[in-house]
Amino acid sequence: QLQAYGGGLVQAGGSLRLSCAASGLTFSNYAMGWFRQAPGREREFVAGVTWRGGSRYYGDSVKGRFAISRDNAKNTEYLQMNSLKPEDTAVYYCAAGLFDSTSSNPRMYAYWGQGTQVTVSS
Length: 122
Hints:
This protein is mostly beta strands.
């Protein structure tokens, strides 16, 4: 089970930190990712990190602004979001996949959190 939290309302240029707590799985065995979905749009890859955290990968729209990390001792992954823009407004989902790499393909991820709303006002 994955539980995402930390979303909220923030002004453009602000920051938020999302967290995703995992339970019921061996967290350190899983690659982790963040996706987002805005109303009327397809789910979009945001960031991914390998099971040890040694490799990180970002969607083009968030490169240089967002940072993904994980703490295997706490069974938690994070998404630090800086310089937020109104177009970052979406429901953000965390996901876990049993593979030894990173992937932007949502089909690679077997487990999904319930989503947390991020709203960026202009």
